[in-house]
Amino acid sequence: MPSNMASLLLATVLSFGLILISTYAFQLIAAARHRLPPGPLPLPVVGNLLAIGRGSPHRSLARLAERYGPMTSLRLGVVPAVVISSAAAAREVLQRHNASLADRPVIDAWHANGHRANSVIALPPHAKWRAMRRLCAAELFAPARLDALRPLRQRKVRELLSHVSGKAALGEPFAVREPVFTAAMNILSRTMFSVDLDSGPASSSLGRGLSDAVKEATILAATPNVSDFFPAIAAADLQGLRRRMRPLVVDAHKILDELFAQRLLDREACEPPKNDMLDAVLDKEHEEQQEGSEINRSTIKGLFTDMFVAGSDTSSTAIEWAMASLLNSPQVMEKVKGELRSVLGKKAQVEESDIAQLPYLQAVVKEVLRLYPPVPMSFYRAEATVQVQGYTIPQGTTIMLNIWAVHRNADLWADPEKFMPERFMDGDIDFFSSNKECKLIPFGGGRRVCLGLPLAYRTVHLILASLLHEFDWVLPEDAMGSGVDMTEKFGIVISMATPLKAIAKKKRDL
Ligand code: HEM
């Protein structure tokens, strides 16, 4: 009996080994036959997962690109992937072949409580996703609505400045990220439903509940998940990420239900309209309820949840990197403050309409987003097989666009590691329509270009200009010699590993 058991075990191990080896050999032959981009040899089972490195995947992938070229083939568990690291290849993905390459890979945790079915981040680029994007372009992020909501952004910035004035009065260093995060988050939540989301006396318990759920969900969303690399075992949810995500999605949707209900009561009570995004979707609800419409209350809840996940940290992270870069480059700091002085004079508060007159400030923001793109990589999935730069990207391949690597490519940028806003003063590179070259792509591109770009653009410029116009900034004594520690921490955004601490000085005190 024991010898039978041993034979059975041996046969099982041998057959399993044989399956692995033949799958592996099959993959290598298929790669050669299809003319896939070059890449490191995948190991059995794990493929190239170990080559990615958890700490800074954008950096390890950039190193692979130096060795294998701007299109690198990888196998992540059983999932075939191609990494894109040059502007020329990015152009093919974001423009020429975008119709076939704009799907997203399946992220298992996103399935929690059925969220994927209404997620603008995760849906395939078909009817429902198109309807959501149309609603955003025509209504929610339409220039007229964002213009009408200008006063609320000014108000949130005034609150930020008054908070920083308090810190300035103390003369002590403080973590710049915290009040900036609160301001950017509240601008987003006020734009959506006129409620402050982050902590502070004005924030409601609903707001805080939503903020907490979103913060936790972003941590889970950034955790590598074995289910995504081995979809056949995804149902087992081995790391429990989908299970842990579920109550967060349920909470977020419950809070959004309450916000909808409250607004309907306000309307019945003839309260004046707020003209925020919630009003916009309620105004359109009768159209949405028509037969065949892709948009309904569940879709809107999915859309709002995603906006928070994608928009909560990004703008404030960009502003923190900007302040750190300026504090490390006194000449650039002086120049940008000089521009603010000469354009704004003694004007009490910066306004969004001033941004167009501040080309050097705009160049500083571009340079910060080039060197420190808050979202360093974007992910797509090929819906059809396409040929890019002579290589095949087979249907079903995950495409990893390494935005960070494109932004630091020495063939495109002189002194790519150097903080040099002047490089943007002559050209016509911007984040919007004229960015045909795909050299500067912090908001991604093509059909899936960042949905919050119009709001993020206004928020980042307005907050940064206001902080610089109102205060002078110095580093704490212990950081004066060494400068700011610019080490990155990878997550759903790349943030500063050591949060920036600085001292604000009200200008008239100097
Ligand atoms: C400086 C700030 C921001 C940066 C750098 C940024 C960057 C990005 C990037 C790189 C993508 C992926 C685009 C692609 O796949 O091609 C993206 C997508 C997205 N962003 Fe932003 N973002 C910012 C702010 C915001 C804000 C404030 C919001 C919300 C209002 C937002 C909402 C979204 C959404 C919903 C998507 C998914 C779009 C889709 O898949 O169709 N983002 N963003």
From TrEMBL:
<protein>
    <submittedName>
        <fullName>Uncharacterized protein</fullName>
    </submittedName>
</protein>
<feature type="binding site" description="axial binding residue">
    <location>
        <position position="450"/>
    </location>
    <ligand>
        <name>heme</name>
    </ligand>
</feature>
<keyword id="KW-0560">Oxidoreductase</keyword>
<dbReference type="Pfam" id="PF00067">
    <property type="entry name" value="p450"/>
</dbReference>
<dbReference type="GO" id="GO:0051502">
    <property type="term" value="P:diterpene phytoalexin biosynthetic process"/>
</dbReference>
<dbReference type="GO" id="GO:0006952">
    <property type="term" value="P:defense response"/>
</dbReference>
<keyword id="KW-0408">Iron</keyword>
<keyword id="KW-0611">Plant defense</keyword>
<keyword id="KW-0479">Metal-binding</keyword>
<dbReference type="GO" id="GO:0005506">
    <property type="term" value="F:iron ion binding"/>
</dbReference>
<dbReference type="GO" id="GO:0020037">
    <property type="term" value="F:heme binding"/>
</dbReference>
<dbReference type="InterPro" id="IPR036396">
    <property type="entry name" value="Cyt_P450_sf"/>
</dbReference>
<comment type="similarity">
    <text>Belongs to the cytochrome P450 family.</text>
</comment>
<keyword id="KW-0349">Heme</keyword>
<dbReference type="InterPro" id="IPR002401">
    <property type="entry name" value="Cyt_P450_E_grp-I"/>
</dbReference>
<keyword id="KW-0503">Monooxygenase</keyword>
<dbReference type="InterPro" id="IPR001128">
    <property type="entry name" value="Cyt_P450"/>
</dbReference>
<dbReference type="InterPro" id="IPR017972">
    <property type="entry name" value="Cyt_P450_CS"/>
</dbReference>
<dbReference type="GO" id="GO:0016709">
    <property type="term" value="F:oxidoreductase activity, acting on paired donors, with incorporation or reduction of molecular oxygen, NAD(P)H as one donor, and incorporation of one atom of oxygen"/>
</dbReference>
